[in-house]
Every structure is written in structure tokens, then in C-alpha cells.
Amino acid sequence: MSAPSPVEAFYALGIQAGLSGKKFSFFFMISFLLDATVIFCYHKITSHLDFGICTRTPEDFQYDASWIASLPCEQRPHIIFDDGYEDTFEVAYPILDALGLRASLFVITNWIGKPNHWDANFFGTFQHISLCHLRQLAAAGWEIGSHGATHRALTTLSRHALRQDSWGLNTT
User: Fold this and answer.
1) What proportion of the chain, given as a percentage, has pLDDT over 70?
2) CATH superfamily of 21-166
3) What pLDDT is stored for residue 160 in this prediction?
4) pLDDT exceeds cutoff 70 at 18
5) To the nearest whole number, what is the mean pLDDT of the chain?
6) Domain boundaries in the chain?
7) How many Å is the Cα radius of gyration of the chain?
8) Segment holding 80, helix H or strand E
């Protein structure tokens, strides 16, 4: 497998901007003209009212995934999930699996199996994925990576704290 071209993270490539149809395809095409690797980044797949970034309803995610699956393999964007929410396993995984697609998941290691506190909105907190479900995703061919240990703003940390957080050491 060759190294990917420089990443131009479109941060969900128009999804967040509400692009669809021809506009969506246009931005996807432009990314290839720029020789960029396209990444679709999601946080949560939920029907619950949420004001977070990169949140899609299950129906919209089904549409996204079906569109991605319709592309030739070499033109498919990378699908990643940020923070490691339980709905990645409960909602996104069955959709992607049915289409023969895999994704990458970047988890916050100190929050595996726990509800978070930073992403709480007016309607409650969101549960992070369990270790059991992480293992199932890894066994299904998903790439599992670290998004640090604590979800702190890395640019504000001392060198020592940054090293601890990056290596996933328990810093809370």
C-alpha cells in the first residue's frame, strides 16, 4: 500500500456546510484535482438533538455511506470517527459493514466506556465506546487510534503533560 497524498482535511467535506447533490460532488472532485486525500470526519451519528460538530442523523449517514460505497475504491474518501462515541458501534458500524466499508476510530483512552463531560449539551451527555466494542471493530478490520488520553487542548499543555496525554497515560 503506497503512502497517502498530503491530507487536506475537508472536515466532513461539505457535510458540515450542508452541501449535497451536485455541490457535494463538485467539492469531492476538486479535492482530487488538488491531489488531496479526502477525509470524512464524524463525531456522532444520532437522532438526538445535538449542537456538536460533524453530527449526522442515521438517515443522513446512511446516505453518505451509500454514496461513498458507490465510488470506485481508489476514489473513496477515508472515513474517520473522532472521540469514540458508542453510536459509532451501534449505528455507523452496521451501516458501513453492510456496504463493505471500514473506517478509522480515534478514541480518548481515559474515556473508554464512560460518559463525557465536555460534550454535554442541554439534553445530557454522550457515552463513549466500550472496550468490548472497540475489540469487535478492530476484529472487523477497523483501524483504532488514540486521540490522546484526556481530550485537553494539546497546545495548552506543558511538554511533560503533552507527552503523557499523547501516550495515553492516565493524567486525570
Assistant:
1) 67
2) Glycoside hydrolase/deacetylase (3.20.20.370)
3) 85
4) no
5) 76
6) 21-166
7) 16
8) strand 78-83
d(C-alpha 125, C-alpha 128), whole Å = 10
Mean pLDDT of all residues in 124-141: 93
At position 135, the amino acid (one-letter code) is R
Pairing of strands 104-107, 143-146: parallel
- Taking alpha carbons only, the member of 75, 100, 104 closest to residue 88 is 104
Cα–Cα distance, 106 to 83 (Å, whole number):
6
pLDDT tens digits along 99-115: 999 999 999 888 899 98
Long-range CB contacts (< 8 A, 24+ apart) of 131-134? Answer: 133/86, 133/89, 134/84, 134/105, 134/107
Residue 109's alpha-carbon distances to 30, 31, 38, 100, in angstroms, are: 35, 32, 26, 27
Length of the chain: 172
Q: Of 94, 103, 89, 95, whose CA–CA distance to 39 is shortest?
A: 103
Side-chain-facing half-sphere of 65: CA atoms under 13 Å: 23
Helix (H, G, I), strand (E, B) or coil at 168: coil
